[in-house]
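Help wanted!
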Amino acid sequence: MKKRVTNRTEPNWTALEHFLREGIASTEYGDPREELGRAPDAEDREVARELVRAAATFDIEEIGTESLHPEAVRHPSVRPLPEGAADPSFLGRLSATGTGDMSVDQIDDVPTILAVLRAGSRKQRRAALERLGERLRERRGVPNEALRAATQTITELRDVELGHELARLRAELPGAPGRKARSEDERWKRLAAETKEAVRSFWDGLLDVEPIHVLPGDQRALLLMRTPELPAMVLHHINAIIEGSDGCVPRESRVGLLASLRYATDRRLVPALVAVIESARGELLAEAARVLGGIDDPRAHPALVERFERSIVSEERVALAGALGLHGDCRGLPEVRSLLQQEQPSSILHALEAMESLGSSENSELVVRFLDHSDIGIAVQAVRTLARISDGRVLDELGERYNTTSVPALRAAIEDALSAIAARMELRGEEVAEIDWSEVGNKPAPRKKGARDSLPAIVLGWRDYFMGRLWLLLGRINWAVARFESAARRRAGWVVPLIGIGMAFARGEQYALALPAFRRAIELDRPRIERNPILVRAMAKSFLHRAEQVEREGRDDIARGLVGEVLTLDLRRAPGTVRFELKRKHDVLGKPEHDDVHSAA
Amino acid sequence: MSTRLRDAAIRHLRAQGAVSPEGLVHRLTMDIEVDGRVEMVTLSLRDGELQCVSSDGQNDGRHVICALEWVAGLEQRADSLQPGVEAVIGRRSLEPPQQSELADALDELLIAVTRVGIDKARYAPSVDAALEGVVEVAAEPTPPGLGRFIGRLRQEVLSGQPRRAARILEGAARLADALRVESRTEASEERIRAWLGARPGSVPELELLYDRTMVEVAREWLAGTTRASVERRYLIDLTAGAIYREDRPSQATASLGPCPRQIHVGLAEVEPGPAPQRIRVLQYEVRPEVSAESWERLHQIARRSFAQLTETYRRAVQIYPTLAEPFALIAPYRIEHDDGFIAIDSEGHRLALERTERRGSVLAFYELLNEGIEPTWLAGRLTDAGSTLCISPFAFATRNHDYTRL
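Answered by r_m:
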């Protein structure tokens, strides 16, 4: 039974709603005073009070569960599709999720999948890797040559963004690559189990420090690379840090953790990330947006849009625009373009990053401008952006830079970009650009070794070297180093003993001592180190851990210099986690170094 | 307990809450011995109210009085304060706002909105000015109830919901009435306390909870005078099945831990007021993993009758049309989601999904339902759309206790 509260018996709800919507000055539905049973000269205050009282009373009494109001049943049951795809080509329309007319999981041809793996967006590449795994498991109808190419690609792929998926797939491979991957897998499981115990101790009050924060950078990157496999308790703990409800982690470390999660795909992170997007500001928000952009979840897009529409800070808007671009929403493109046109030093790097997901061939000319930027970090990012845009018109520009640059990191990035662009052209049905590396690769000649060493010098050099190895086996590092130094003195330009010194100190975790040896070795024969996965890993980790040490001492400038120095090298053969952590640290420590970029080259 | 003593303690705590390089003082905890018995006494200023409690559960016992006397004694030594410091807690005047001014400001706001209508209110300078007027005459920082009123009103005006906006304005009108009434009744006092906090010198009737196990099932950021000004956590008492809210204003602290979490509450205070009742967790232990028994218990205490739920909801919004934001844990008999989500109880009553807010969560929930997930319980904030009770989904769990936060 409905109870009515006005002086009149039955106020007309339609009229009340109209007065609420249009205001009490509206007379279309009659006089509100009359409708509410008030005197014609009643004050607005009295009419307003009566109106909201009557409306609220009526509304509350109507609430029920017997019937469903049509308004309550309407629902957004499917995700809205992003507005018109910018790229109408095969790759532009290729869906990663299987919802469109063309999706990666419908492709059977292995070379096509491999091309998508090189040229696609992050989501497409993930889907392509997944599909490649399926094809390898099926094997039926897959030519042996294609199988070999697929196995080789999986083994050699250095895509940091696909770290988790690659690790899973490599563990399924037969032979040495599979064994190595399974061994890595075991290492990760041990690390995850240790972290879980540490997290339990932390919340029990037995541990003073936050356990993930204190992990060495590469270990943290390794742990967080596989977030979907982390136990629920560790994930909840990470969410607590992200939301700032752990009680001890400072804001800078929260930013650092979010940066470490850049390529995480775990949906369990989404509520905490959305909370940060709603409530945080500045760098914290920007990092959360970058993570959320890469997670395929329906909660991500509405949260990013809502924040983008109300944010006024350039740093936040660029990150949000890039994240929206990853979800196929290009509303931030004009702003990112404008920032690049203005060439504001503080925003170039992040604007170029955002352009990776937002840009089309219309923007390639704008990005090409930054290939010659004095900051190597920006130049490398410009190359990466061009690789994602994949406009065939920039091949000549990239080839020219490849011939002229002396920075190994830039050359490596250009090599990857040229492959990606060629793959994209293939997928678009365009004439595939044949890249003749022998012509393009006008590489600087390796440093000339000194005059040919005399036979006694060679013999004595090897003797000293083997003695050094022997002392190393016996654990006498100082004696071993003395022998290696002696061998290096006997034969100028001989890099082997220098590598021995660097490796000995790196294994002993004496990174400060390892660096000079690695620097001398790089000066003598850089390609030898860059092409050897073991050497490049030891060298990169030495730089990273030394940077962490000096950073802990508060000497951020020196740490920044070390990270900037090693990032000028071709690190493609270093582990993805180390490369990722170096890049993250480089970003965290601030602007890249300008002065010492050639010191490691 | 003497009001003078409390006021002296408040003044001293305000001064201790000053901005200084050493940081802010939010809470003082002391071990006080009286007649050979030692109890821990906690004094804190929250939202301008002095909260006193001793570890024996008294908030006006001899240990508390002794602690207040000690603090008041410190306050009398004026030279202990550093000159020139600005009190953070003290920035908020604990004096009640000029109550008639606030009542007038609320009336002005009501008139401004109803004159232009909800559809045009978002663009109306008169409404903006009236809102600013309310904030100006209120104490600084804005009391949480008043802040939430402003946040909700802005949200409903933006979304063009006349019914809900009317309800929110009705709550404000009732507050204005309570502020103007000359002889205060218990109901008017409680209303004012829910909106503006306790008046200086008054002792709010707090319920004390001891040794309870609670599970936090959800949290969200809510708008106040600014967007995302309060983080609200929803805690469920596994013994009584009661649902509490723990509000953490931005830049402030509350209990620690992730969501979900299981906390063993040694001591907590519960304020009377709008649903869900506000809890302040004073002593607790937190576990980041919730035990299977606790998940099972949550399933047991989840509401199964939607008719009763509707009645509870209706009663809550009748008493506090503005501030009541009931939260519920439901265990539907079955769920239909082919043509829109409908939860159905064993009596055939139906509950729809709120779709206008937390749209991403609704979409994620639908995707999971379409993937075949079968929730055994669903936690969410109750609301209504077109006279139908709805739930805004925050979290759910499946039969094997797989919890998902939305």
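OP: Thanks! One thing I noticed: Chain B has four domains: 3-91, 99-196, 207-296, 302-405.
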